[in-house]
Amino acid sequence: MARVGGHRYCYKDVLPFTALVAMECSNVGLNTLFKFATNHGMSRHVFVVYAYAVAALVLLPAMFLCRSRSRVLPQLNFSIMIKTFLLGVIGCASQIMGYTGISYGSPTLASAISNLTPAFTFVLAIIFRMEKLEPSSTSSRAKVVGTLVSISGAFVVTLFKGPSINSPPDKHQILHSSRSNWIIGSLFLTIEYILVPVWYIVLTHIMKEYPAELTLMFFYNLFVSILAAFVGLIAEPDSSKWIIRPNISLASILCSGVFGSGLNNVIHTWALHLRGPVYVAMFKPLSIAIAAAMGVIILGDTLYLGSIIGATIIAIGFYTVMWGKTKEGIAEFDEISDLESVATQKHPLLRSYKTEGTEKR
Length: 361
Known about the structure:
14 helices
């Protein structure tokens, strides 16, 4: 019993936690690389088209391998394809808004605004009955309080810039930045991270009908690349922008295609299927400290007091919600153990079989 419980805990708790933390670190690195490439002239519209095309090419052989080994998958019908196309529309809009926001702002700002995702996801999950909310439950109250705290922290990051921490204060520079690029970037990023929870909810719904991460992500990346190409041809008519040379732009596209649009989306899809949208969304706040460090060291970004205060508030909210989710998970595990114990008592043969098996080992 203990051994089975340990394997279940490792697969449903330790592995998703480790994978999602690694993906958040990867995302921050990819956003920093993208910002560096755009500073050297790369178009964000061209980037989205090529990065998602690379991801589709990488996932193509894996999709066929997965389908050849699995005999229990349902048929890939027209309804699933339409839903995946809708997912592509949401993802394409989200990515264009996000990369536009990073172009105007910074990876640190993107990571700060991304902390709105858990709150919006939690609200949508309750609306669509994917998350339980019991006012009398301590775990539910912790999740609600943590969500509200995270939202307040995100507002602090967006609305209060404050003085710079790592450079001499320049009143003109601070005022100019706060009323132009900072606000524009914040608006685009806020729209992105409103769309991300919708993406989580739609994908979770599709996964219940067709639980094949690699196949869904192949078609998703393909649809996003095609949709982004239509938008890019209108928004970026200069043909010279579409020619990618072997420089930082190519490195950014390849890395984002393989590790971002490819591996990252597959990991998130798997985690959504395993733990649900709220759990996945709650890892967004971890990226703020990584983004701030990378932005200052690699891009020479200025670190502002508002970002530090907001990130601290967000972190408190994040760990409050995670505490609620952990407490809820422990309660579910205890309930399953109690049910198994009752079943063993009702069927003594099961108990004797397990005891004999343990003695032989």
